[in-house]
Fold this sequence. Notes:
This protein has 169 residues and is α+β, with helices and mostly antiparallel strands. The chain has two domains: 26-112, Sandwich (Immunoglobulin-like); 126-168. Helix content is 24%, strand content 40%. The chain has two helices and twelve strands. β10 and β11 form a beta hairpin. The longest helix has 32 residues, at 136-167.
Amino acid sequence: xxxxxxxxxxxxxxxxxxxxxxxxxxxxxxxxxxxxxxxxxxxxxxxxxxxxxxxxxxxxxxxxxxxxxxxxxxxxxxxxxxxxxxxxxxxxxxxxxxxxxxxxxxxxxxxxxxxxxxxxxxxxxxxxxxxxxxxxxxxxxxxxxxxxxxxxxxxxxxxxxxxxxxxxx
Length: 169
């Protein structure tokens, strides 16, 4: 009623809805310094439809190393979607300016890391509150578990090949 969703093939999706598209209502960068690394979290909230492209860049080019892009999620209380992306940089790059860029059908924006709008979590308790927004922690744990599983699978394969080598030698 007022909404229709149809998927063609492996990725083309047609969505018919009475609701019009809306740009992100809130976007911010959160920062946490830990030992010799700085983690920036770009949080973009309350946009519709869920299709959005999030990238990180420095002054010269797009940054792809040590970037994690979370999946979009829909809050149970809200009509819109949210997304988060993480960038981890060495502490010696603290003075370097990075940008979280997003492209949505209603709006394109670029959020810099080196302005007063970047929020720093001063205490561990504040940091937990920030990262538990939505299901950010769940996404990070899920991605970490996936990488650990792949690593263990590769390790087992290496052991298998080494044993085969010694058996047929």
